[in-house]
Amino acid sequence: MPLPAGxxxxxxxxxxxxxxxDVFVVVADGxxxxxxxxxTRSLFAGPSVVLSRENAAGGRARGVVVVAKNANVATGDxxxxxxxxxxxxxxxxxxxxxxxxxxxxxxxxxxxYPMSILRTHLDxxxxxxFDADAxxxxxxxxxxxxxxxxxxxxxxxxxxxxxxxxxxxKGVGMVEPDMATMIAVVFTDAAVxxxxxxxxxxxxxxDTFNCLSVDTDTSTSDTxxxxxxxxxxxxxxxxxxxxxxxxxxxxTLQLARDGEGATKLLTVEVTGARDRDxxxxxxKAILNSPLVKTAVHGADPNWGRVAMAIGKxxxxxxxxxxxxxxxxxxxxxxxxxxxxxxxxRLTEIMRAEEVTISVDLGVEGGAAxxxxxxxxxxxxxxxxxxxxxxxx
Amino acid sequence: MPLPAGxxxxxxxxxxxxxxxDVFVVVADGxxxxxxxxxTRSLFAGPSVVLSRENAAGGRARGVVVVAKNANVATGDxxxxxxxxxxxxxxxxxxxxxxxxxxxxxxxxxxxYPMSILRTHLDxxxxxxFDADAxxxxxxxxxxxxxxxxxxxxxxxxxxxxxxxxxxxKGVGMVEPDMATMIAVVFTDAAVxxxxxxxxxxxxxxDTFNCLSVDTDTSTSDTxxxxxxxxxxxxxxxxxxxxxxxxxxxxTLQLARDGEGATKLLTVEVTGARDRDxxxxxxKAILNSPLVKTAVHGADPNWGRVAMAIGKxxxxxxxxxxxxxxxxxxxxxxxxxxxxxxxxRLTEIMRAEEVTISVDLGVEGGAAxxxxxxxxxxxxxxxxxxxxxxxx
Lengths: 392, 392
Hints:
The structure is a homodimer of 392-residue chains.
Chain A: E1 7-12, E2 23-28, E3 34-39, H1 47-56, E4 63-67, H2 76-94, E5 101-105, H3 115-123, H4 134-140, E6 149-156, E7 162-170, E8 183-191, H5 194-207, E9 223-234, H6 237-257, E10 265-271, H7 276-288, H8 290-297, H9 303-311, E11 325-328, E12 331-334, H10 340-351, E13 354-360, E14 372-377, H11 381-389
């Protein structure tokens, strides 16, 4: 999958991990570059997030450096100096100012970058080929991901030409975004003002990455970045928003399916809420309940655990259990208890690779937008194995 | 372990489960009975909680009926009628008014009580021996508990005699109390006014059961009850509070150690917070993080995950990562990174059956009471097995 027009990219192996690429640099050279970025709200946000937040502020960042295997978090003043040096050397190699680049890191927390191998690698970039495609970039930033994640959508520019949105993402554990999540980078060749890109990208992120949870844990390093090269010409705002949302949703579903140890995609749709915040709170309570997740893993249509999870939202006193409806797939389980005849169909629904739980809260006077859909996965023994045995 | 003086109790097998006792009734006959009770805040609280809340209001409940294997939750109007009938028949059998009894149920959600076997059992109680001890009662209410949980403490009455507090508890999954948790019943023969008992019991519950979490899921049926028979005479308020707290803490630790699939007791102590609420919020974020829990399971001193969990409390903007200290056992891991020499000791600390993580937040101007200790367990493959395979 090629990047949109106007980008050059290099993925290479600096040696942070034993096999495969572990650093990439991508940059847009055109005159009308725009960018948008959202970051983790963690109190322990690392130097990469701090520096990128500064450099993203003007909406004119041209590119990104991503370092895999090491999050460079909780590494003190030296960690900040290391991050600045990486930005400077990368910027020097591709001929832009350090302030025009963003940086994202992912991996172990609490260890310094191996600076000597990073220096050697970055200084060697000046003479390298910059022809990496989206798949190569996505592969270079994987941690426990089982496969690289890319997505692409076409748009039509106002002059009738074709523009593209191409996104890449990583992150299968420590995933419960509240503002951004994991690392996602979205490229487009559309020409767009930074303010317009920012509004469209934040909206798309809110409905996709921010509705994803693998394990309720929020990374210290999460970053979602969009960069527009402008080469393909202007697109309509609505068209841009739809394309960004389609790419981000596609990546979100890939991340959920590849959640650590996941065997199923779990989608929870809540409707009939007072407002979207309430719908999201209830949907997340269901999606994140270890008892719901293990029931889904065991293909057990345990709607009682869904009721339990809704019941945890006890500050939402306008939710009346007698007005709640719980549906597995297309079969209502509460209050219309499934009979013997429906048990076979229920079992079939639960055994599928994608399970959807729909809840109508029936809140009186609920808003038209009182709904939210969230994405996650089941909880398996494999999640425990990955995380009990994964070294610090 | 005998109950305190002034109680008579019966545990029997109504047939709700295949083997063993599944119903118990305990009642205090004396003239100066007092009681206190706290319940789940779940929106889906079942008829047992609704009825017990009514009957506990005056602080003069004399006893409790507990039904195992079936929570009688989300069972509609019929479930409420069934719960009333169980209370009436049990009260009739022991010769008290139905309003003087509390009821607690635990087990599957969304199925009606098997009323015919319950009727037969309760009507047969009139001629039964009432000589069950604490262990028999605790065993009769187990679900996935691996052993019955009891605790006992002695007090000295104001006249120099001995009074006792004896408690029983169950609950190893769906445990994250916010007001009460699981089912716990505490008996004492001390003579105490309902208001005094209530204050002392709620204080004890807040520092013990409400600081316990196995899996972040809050039961729809959780109930903690204290009943005083008054037979042993008055005790000092402070003595009562200390005894209640000791019994509740003992039971809390037993519940944490027996958490579903648990191999280790995990204690998290947070100090140096702005106030107790902040300390508890941070402590729970650490205790409930699946990545911290799996690291503890794998004996991995992964303090980076503890930093991550603290970082999730991003609304607590007065927490400054540079002032935070993280200690495993008695060894500081952040900001004083452990050296090679300490790794062996760290590994030893992590391999023990009890792991304590201490965090000093160092919040400037923090209150003297800005601390909280919470109790939980590791997360193992066995938790998944129990809950993926446990039938609705």
